Amino acid sequence: MKQYSAEFLGTFWLVLGGCGSAVLAAAFPGVGIGLHGVSLAFGLTVLTMAYAIGPISGCHLNPAVSIGLWAGGRFPASKLLPYIGAQVIGAVAAGGVLYVIASGAAGFDVSKGFASNGYGAHSPGGYSMLAALVTEVVMTMFFLIVILGATGKRAPAGFAPLPIGLALTLIHLISIPVTNTSVNPARSTGVALYVGDWAVEQLWLFWVAPIAGALLGAVIYRFIASDEK
């Protein structure tokens, strides 16, 4: 139960910190943090939580990561569903807190996106569904390769949070214009449910693509590190 509670809290922090920076601070008049700040915020949520709860739950914070770690031989199948459940609940709870905060400002309109992920007309840069699909698969694939490598036996002990957090920052710098960056089904769900409408209709892609990418990353890493054991 402590592991699941840790995943709840960690994913809550990821959504509140990452999506919160996008909703509350990205375009703040005069001093908004913009794309670079939002990218860094997502990376910092993972970095800080990896040190805080990594020894407790492994700090997955992401159903795709949990599934990828299972496929990579690092996580038992028996814990997959409870981990994913805790992550999604944590994300939705954080979305609720963010909604309460954001709605305290005059003119707040959740239909404008609320940091939701999308493609086509709902992509920040107007990118197609195919572009979004490829982006999410490839970005999550590399994220899993970094995670598996940084936490492997060959990696220096105690430093894994740094490359993992920086990798997520880089992923956001690349892909915010395409999909608003998911690579995490829980993060996508946590805000999409409050937007409803198109955000929920397009949510399927932000479950399918990250999970496919995570599985692909696990297979590739197991191949290139097959002598690690």
UniProtKB/TrEMBL annotation:
<feature type="short sequence motif" description="NPA 1">
    <location>
        <begin position="62"/>
        <end position="64"/>
    </location>
</feature>
<feature type="site" description="Selectivity filter">
    <location>
        <position position="187"/>
    </location>
</feature>
<keyword id="KW-1133">Transmembrane helix</keyword>
<comment type="similarity">
    <text>Belongs to the MIP/aquaporin (TC 1.A.8) family.</text>
</comment>
<dbReference type="GO" id="GO:0005886">
    <property type="term" value="C:plasma membrane"/>
</dbReference>
<keyword id="KW-0997">Cell inner membrane</keyword>
<feature type="site" description="Involved in tetramerization or stability of the tetramer">
    <location>
        <position position="19"/>
    </location>
</feature>
<comment type="subunit">
    <text>Homotetramer.</text>
</comment>
<keyword id="KW-0812">Transmembrane</keyword>
<dbReference type="InterPro" id="IPR023271">
    <property type="entry name" value="Aquaporin-like"/>
</dbReference>
<keyword id="KW-0677">Repeat</keyword>
<dbReference type="InterPro" id="IPR000425">
    <property type="entry name" value="MIP"/>
</dbReference>
<dbReference type="InterPro" id="IPR023743">
    <property type="entry name" value="Aquaporin_Z"/>
</dbReference>
<feature type="site" description="Selectivity filter">
    <location>
        <position position="42"/>
    </location>
</feature>
<dbReference type="InterPro" id="IPR022357">
    <property type="entry name" value="MIP_CS"/>
</dbReference>
<feature type="transmembrane region" description="Helical">
    <location>
        <begin position="126"/>
        <end position="150"/>
    </location>
</feature>
<feature type="transmembrane region" description="Helical">
    <location>
        <begin position="162"/>
        <end position="183"/>
    </location>
</feature>
<feature type="site" description="Selectivity filter">
    <location>
        <position position="172"/>
    </location>
</feature>
<protein>
    <recommendedName>
        <fullName>Aquaporin Z</fullName>
    </recommendedName>
</protein>
<dbReference type="Pfam" id="PF00230">
    <property type="entry name" value="MIP"/>
</dbReference>
<comment type="function">
    <text>Channel that permits osmotically driven movement of water in both directions. It is involved in the osmoregulation and in the maintenance of cell turgor during volume expansion in rapidly growing cells. It mediates rapid entry or exit of water in response to abrupt changes in osmolarity.</text>
</comment>
<feature type="site" description="Selectivity filter">
    <location>
        <position position="181"/>
    </location>
</feature>
<feature type="transmembrane region" description="Helical">
    <location>
        <begin position="80"/>
        <end position="106"/>
    </location>
</feature>
<keyword id="KW-1003">Cell membrane</keyword>
<dbReference type="InterPro" id="IPR034294">
    <property type="entry name" value="Aquaporin_transptr"/>
</dbReference>
<feature type="short sequence motif" description="NPA 2">
    <location>
        <begin position="184"/>
        <end position="186"/>
    </location>
</feature>
<feature type="transmembrane region" description="Helical">
    <location>
        <begin position="203"/>
        <end position="224"/>
    </location>
</feature>
<dbReference type="GO" id="GO:0015250">
    <property type="term" value="F:water channel activity"/>
</dbReference>
<keyword id="KW-0472">Membrane</keyword>
<keyword id="KW-0813">Transport</keyword>
